[in-house]
Structure formats: C-alpha cells, structure tokens
Design goal:
Layout lengths: L7 E6 L7 H14 L4 E6 L1 H4 L6 H18 L7 E4 L6 H9 L4 H5 L2 H10 L5 H15 L5 E3 L5 H17 L8 E3 L34 H9 L17 H14 L3 H7 L5 H28 L1 H30 L7
Parallel strand pairs: 1-2, 2-3, 4-5
Helix pairs in contact: 3-12, 4-7, 4-13, 7-8, 9-12, 10-12
The structure holds adenosine-5'-triphosphate and L-tryptophanamide.
Length: 336
C-alpha cells in the first residue's frame, strides 16, 4: 500500500475534446495548486474513452494532446504522476472484482449512464454501464483520500464510496473511503452565447466557448461577440446582467483582480472597451500556455517519457493494491 505520510489525491480526465476556459479555472488550475501538498496522480482515462463510439486515431491524438495541455497548464511531472490508464495493469482487473459486488440496479440508475445511453439509442455498449465501476477502480487502486471533481461527478464518487465500504465489509478493511474535493471558490464560467448555462466543450455553438488552444484572433472575436445585457453599467448582477457578470468573472479569474476592483475600474466605461480588455486578459493568460503546449507537442519523446515515468510510479502502487485484493478475494498466489 502507499506508505507515504502525505495523503493521496487522484483525479482523471477523458482524453476527449479540447479543454475550455471553464475546465482550466474549474479543474486544472486547482489540480496544479494541490501538487505541493499531496501525492498526486493524474490519469488520462483512455479506457473510459472507448465507452462511446470513437476513432482509434483520434483517441491516440487526443491522449497526447491532453497530456501536452496538462503540462502546459503547469502540472509538473517531477512533482506528480501523470499516466495513461491503459498503461497500468490493475484498473480493469480491480474493476472486475468491484463489479462482482456492485448491484446492477445502482449502475442502471446512474444519471450519466441514463443520459449517455439515451443519446446512443440502440447502440449502448455494456462498457457504458460499467463506466462507474472502472472509475471506482481508478480511485481505489491508489487508495486515494481525495478526488478533485466537478459537481457532475459526485454520484460517481458516491458509488465508489459504496463499493469501498462493501469490499471492506465483505472481506476486511482495505480501502480508504475517498472524499470528493470540490473547490468552493473556483470560478464557474458560463457560455459566452448563453450566459445562463455553463461553458462546455461539447457546446454545439463553438462561439460560446473559449478553448485553451484558440488563437488570439479567435478569442478576441468570440469575446467581442459575447452576449451582453441591456443597460450600459459594468457591474455584477447575475440575475439581470448574466452576460456582463460572466465576462467580469472571466476577467477576474484571468487577471487575478477582484470583481469589485474591476467594477470600480470600469465605472463609466463602455461595453466595447471592457470586452476588448477582457480579451486582452484572457489572451495574456493563455499565450504562455499555448507556447508551452506547442513546445511539448513537438516533443513526442518527452511526452512518452512523462507517460513512462507516470506509469511506473502508478504501477508500483497498483500492483500492491491488486495483490492485496486478490489475496482477500481468495485467489491463489500466482506461481513465481
Ligand atoms: P462536456 O461538454 O463534455 O460535458 P465540459 O467542458 O463541460 O465537458 P467536463 O469534462 O464535464 O467539462 O469537466 C471537467 C472538469 O472541468 C470538471 O471538474 C468540471 O467541474 C470543470 N468544468 C467544466 N466546465 C466548467 C465551467 N464552465 N466552469 C467551471 N468549471 C468547469
Ligand atoms: N468520469 C470522469 C473521469 C474519470 C475520473 C476517474 C475522475 C474517470 N475516472 C477517477 C476522477 C477520478 C469525468 O468524466 N470527468
């Protein structure tokens, strides 16, 4: 088991879709901030990514792209382990064991399963139903204490806790009961085109969403055409001025200035100047990230090295957990 005195944090993301500003402020930026305090594992969950129809070539590309974006955002591979799920033996093995104690009804009731199955129509693979069990295995394999996730993943953490408790009760105490780590103060970024709903990478209207890799000219255009509200005051009023409030939130998160400071600074200003300054702040934030991304993405050898180092560190812990679990499950020891 992990013998480090520090607590373990694990989180994972599917290598699907390009990251947007909301993912940065709501997730990746917070991961970077916990690296110093915890033993951190970041998984790129390629095995989860095949639960929906996909193209192998795109998956391969997206895995490297996701890794390069994380590195560019500041996840330092010297201080944390970044690995591809399929490189570590243990995730699917533990998922099998957990699946055997997981009630079928609980999986059928999962919101994400129901939503995604509905979208899939006739072609729902069994892997989609099993998704939460694999996610529980991702977490329990490292005996993680805390799991940084968004609100939408809370139900998956609940089932992970249930499975850990059930395993501990059925066999003997083995797993920590992991806690979700949901940042209370993280900015919630909303769509530029519909500021009542969250910015999301799968938004069918690409103008609603600033991708981390959007070139400056595109960022400028998207922010210039962001929906604003009637009136001309630049002040926060989530109910009556959701468009301006969202831009203030984005400006504040990008520049580090508080919303109150910005409100004072823009008293009497017009929307045009304000939007142009918001764009400047976002571009200034993203430019160094994009530069680093371009360097990383050119250097496949380095990316492979990061994955190798991450997989080695992850595998060490994974083997230990798996051996313990297999022993408790009653499997005879593998002859050496
Ligand atoms: P999809 O469109 O595929 O649902 P998404 O862009 O909404 O994707 P997720 O992959 O669901 O993003 O979320 C990854 C992480 O980013 C989660 O921790 C989530 O809370 C955070 N996140 C996503 N969108 C936002 C947002 N607009 N504001 C703040 N945090 C966000
Ligand atoms: N389901 C998560 C991704 C995910 C995950 C995990 C997150 C897979 N395994 C383990 C945290 C811990 C998502 O879609 N965001």
């Amino acid at each position: 088991m992990n013998t480090s005195p520090r607590k373990t944090v694990l989180t994972c993301a599917q290598p699907s879709g390009k990251l947007q500003l909301g993912n940065y402020f709501g997730a990746v930026k917070n991961w970077v901030s916990v690296i110093e305090e915890y033993d951190c594992f970041f998984g790129i969950v390629d095995q989860h990514a095949i639960t929906m129809p996909y193209s192998p070539a795109d998956l391969r590309k997206a895995t490297y792209e996701t890794l390069a974006v994380y590195l560019a955002c500041g996840l330092d591979p010297e201080k944390c382990s970044i690995f591809a799920q399929s490189h570590v033996i243990g995730h699917t093995e533990l998922a099998w064991i957990l699946g055997c104690i997981c009630p079928l009804g609980q999986l059928e009731r999962m919101t994400q399963f129901k939503d995604k199955a509905k979208r899939q129509g006739q072609n729902v693979g069994a892997g989609l139903l099993y998704y939460p069990v694999l996610m529980a295995a991702d977490i329990l394999l490292y005996n993680a204490h805390a799991v940084p996730v968004g609100e939408d993943q809370k139900q998956h953490i609940e089932i992970t806790r249930d499975l850990a408790q059930k395993f501990n009760a059925t066999y003997s105490p083995t797993f920590n009961i992991p806690e979700p780590m949901i940042p209370q103060t993280a900015a919630r970024i909303r769509s530029l085109q519909d500021p009542t709903s969250k910015m999301s990478k799968s938004d069918p209207n690409p103008n609603g969403c600033v991708y981390l890799l959007d070139p400056p000219s595109v960022i400028r255009k998207k922010i210039a055409s962001a929906v604003t509200d009637s009136g001309c005051d630049i002040c926060r009023d989530d109910e009556n001025k959701p468009g301006i409030s969202n831009l203030l939130e984005i400006y504040s998160a990008s520049s580090g200035k508080s919303v109150a400071e910005l409100e004072a600074q823009y008293q009497g200003s017009n929307y045009g100047q304000f939007k142009s300054d918001v764009a400047d702040a976002v571009i200034a934030l993203l430019e160094p990230i994009q530069q680093r991304y371009a360097e990383y993405t050119e250097n496949k050898d380095y990316l492979n090295e990061v994955l190798k180092k991450g997989a080695e560190a992850a595998q060490k812990i994974a083997y230990k957990t798996l051996a313990k679990v297999y022993r408790k499950a009653g499997f005879v020891e593998r002859p050496r």
